[in-house]
Design brief:
The complex is a heterodimer. Chain A has helices spanning 2-7, 11-30, 38-50, 58-92, 105-118, 123-147, 153-178, 184-193, 202-221, 225-228, 233-238, 243-265, 271-283, 287-311, 319-341. Chain A is mainly alpha-helical. Chain A has a single domain, classed as ABC transporter involved in vitamin B12 uptake, BtuC (Orthogonal Bundle), CATH 1.10.3470. In chain A, helix 2 (11-30) packs parallel to helix 14, helix 4 (58-92) runs parallel beside helix 9 and helix 13 (271-283) runs parallel beside helix 15. Chain A is globular. Chain A starts with a helix and ends with a helix. The model of chain A is unreliable at 1-7 (pLDDT under 50). Chain B contains ten helices and eleven strands. Chain B has two domains: 1-78 and 159-254, P-loop containing nucleotide triphosphate hydrolases (Rossmann fold), CATH 3.40.50.300; 85-157, no CATH class. In chain B, strand 10 and strand 11 form a beta hairpin. Chain B is α/β, with parallel strands linked by helices. The model of chain B has no long low-confidence stretch (mean pLDDT 93). The chains are: A mainly alpha, B alpha/beta. At the A-B interface, helix 1, helix 10 and helix 11 of A face helix 2, strand 7, helix 3 and helix 4 of B.
Chain lengths: 342, 254
């Protein structure tokens, strides 16, 4: 009986998450300068599928298909990707407090992307520089944590990540100062550093989605073995895992996913830290369940916070500010809550 | 028939040789217990036998095959390791921890099947902790964790079980319990190589005892020939009187 419980995913949790996502998806259309009611959305979608006419004003059709949909899809992609990367990092570094932000990956990728924007690179080139610097950041952090063995490894990893992140952050600031204030450059760098779904068009999505999928493939395939990385290295090795190689594959995969997102949406913080925590709280730490749960919750979280970013005040807030406002208190709540039960 | 054979084996880290000229066997179905002071090389020996540390020179054979060039998988299918218990980071259930022992028996990209879960459940049953299956591993007691780790090692279906101080940091009752389980596993034909700091534990469960003095094996054989007050005194650097005063007379061989 016990083995059966461990194997079957808790269906109600998934169902709930799925329903929640659909609700948030609807809300993303319903809120904004041009609200689209769920019934209009459904009518327009059915009309598109069957080839008929929905009989809706042209403006609403444009809002649905050219403005809202790319944005909602972008939110889902950003959220799912960052949450999956965060879950993978937490597992492979045996540390529930790490995330793409804390490991310096976001800052490194941000520095790479800033470099790309500064020199006027194409989007693909920006994605490549973001990936390279993201990988460099996590490589340096992991290297430091391997060298400094006199302190608690969890602490060293977090501190090294914060340090490297700050260094790359300083590099970004440097390029901000150097960039031309009269061109688009400065404002695009600034806005983009705060994280936003605003500038993402369907071409960006088409170039980012395959890279995110490529990064997710090893996570899905290795979903059982990822669990063993949360054991001490020698123990995992004795259970048949080539620890160094598995960790390398996952670092590259999670960093590719993070850097891709940073290159289209900027630095959207907190998602990679908070969402895997919430997911673990709901479905447990087993990565074969944690990964799908993180993907779903992450998608819902970012689409939801983006709705807030668009509607909370008259101007549109950068997404990163809203994820921080929602994520930080939630994270503190989780810390307090899990502390009590364990 | 031997599960493990070592010949002219020298072990250590890089240039630093910890032990050399090792030549001992672990026989099928026996409990071989390693006794020795800290720094005597028990951990280095275990790491070498588990393939975590390459031998400096000489031969190790497991089930008659040389371990040279073995993959991690090949080791895990034959030699299982029961480490000293630690709390763990993430709240896995005990069942999930035990299922991790099946990793070497399933495909690289697979997740444990119904068959694997049945085996894991059987291992929990064997150690009398089936009721803990759905408990959170990080929340159970140290003694229970130790049992879960034995169950995980058994789930690997190995030829030999290597236990690193299985009774360390346990209270008196749990020490007795673990020793009882080791005894029962032996009776079911499982080969065990274990280390301990307590000679009376070795005397309780071992078929043979090996004395690991720094650098070499000072003696290996039946407990009554090996765990004598004079040999223990020499091994640990204390007097024979101190040994006999500390260990109850009936625990010692005569």
């Amino acid at each position: 009986m016990s083995a059966k419980n461990a194997a079957l995913p808790p269906v109600p949790a998934y169902l709930l998450a799925l329903l929640g996502i659909v609700a948030i998806f609807m809300a993303a259309f319903a809120f904004g300068k041009y609200p689209v009611s769920p019934s209009n959305l459904l009518r327009s979608a059915i009309a598109r599928l069957t080839g008929g006419s929905a009989g809706l004003p042209e403006a609403i059709e444009i809002v649905i298909w050219n403005i809202r949909l790319p944005r909602v899809v972008a939110g889902m992609l950003v959220g799912a990707a960052l949450a999956a990367a965060g879950a993978a990092y937490q597992n492979m570094f045996r540390n529930p407090l790490v995330s793409p932000d804390i490991l310096g990956v976001s800052a490194g990728a941000g520095f790479g992307a800033t470099l790309g924007i500064f020199f006027g690179f194409s989007l693909v080139a920006i994605q490549i520089t973001a990936f390279v610097f993201g990988l460099a950041a996590v490589g340096i952090v992991y290297g430091i944590s391997g060298l400094v063995r006199r302190h608690d490894p969890v602490l060293v990893l977090v501190l090294a990540g914060v340090t490297v992140g700050a260094l790359f952050g300083a590099g970004v600031s440097l390029f901000k100062i150097l960039s031309d204030p009269h061109s688009q450059q400065l404002s695009s760098i600034t806005f983009w550093l705060l994280g936003s779904l605003n500038g993402i068009n369907s071409r960006d999505l088409a170039s980012a989605a395959p890279l995110v999928l490529i990064g997710l493939v090893p996570m899905v395939l290795l979903r059982w073995r990822v669990n063993l990385l949360s054991l001490p290295d020698e123990e995992a090795a004795a259970l048949g895992v080539d620890v160094a190689r598995l960790r390398l594959v996952l670092i590259v995969a999670a960093t590719l996913v993070t850097a891709t997102i940073v290159s289209i949406a900027g630095i959207v913080g907190w998602v990679g830290l908070v969402v895997p925590h919430a997911a673990r709280f709901l479905v447990g730490p087993n990565f074969s369940r944690l990964l799908p749960a993180s993907l779903l919750l992450g998608a819902g979280f970012v689409v939801g916070t983006d709705v807030l970013a668009r509607t909370l005040v008259v101007i549109e807030l950068p997404l990163g500010i809203v994820t921080a406002m929602v994520g930080a208190p939630f994270f503190l709540y989780l810390l307090a809550h899990t502390g009590k039960t364990e | 028939m031997n599960v493990i054979e070592t010949r002219d084996l020298s072990i250590g880290y890089g240039r630093k040789t910890v032990m050399d000229s090792l030549a001992f066997d672990v026989r099928v179905g026996e409990v071989l217990c390693l006794l020795g002071p800290n720094g005597g090389g028990k951990t280095t020996l275990f790491k070498t036998l588990l393939g975590l540390l390459p031998p400096l020179s000489g031969q190790v054979r497991v089930l008659g095959e040389s371990i040279t060039g073995w993959s991690r998988l090949a080791f895990a299918q034959r030699v299982a390791y029961m480490p000293q218990a630690h709390a763990g980071v993430f709240p896995f259930t005990v069942s999930e921890i035990v299922l991790m022992g099946r990793t070497a028996r399933i495909g690289r990209f697979a997740i444990p099947s119904r068959h694997d879960r049945k085996i894991a459940a059987g291992c929990l049953e064997m150690l009398g902790i089936a009721h803990l299956g759905e408990c959170i591993y990080t929340a159970i007691s140290g003694g229970e964790r130790q049992l879960a780790l034995i169950a995980r090692a058994l789930a690997q279906q190995p030829a030999v079980l290597v236990m690193d101080e299985p009774t360390a940091s346990l209270d008196f009752g749990n020490q007795i319990r673990i020793l009882g389980h080791i005894d029962r596993l032996r009776n079911q034909g499982i080969t065990i190589l274990m280390s301990t700091h307590q000679p009376e534990h070795a005397l309780r469960v071992a078929d043979r005892i090996a004395l690991l003095a720094p650098g070499s094996i000072a003696g290996i054989g039946a407990p009554k020939d090996i765990a004598t007050p004079d040999k223990l005194a020499a091994l640990y650097g204390v007097t024979e009187d101190e040994i006999t005063a500390y260990l109850p007379a009936r625990a010692l061989p005569n």
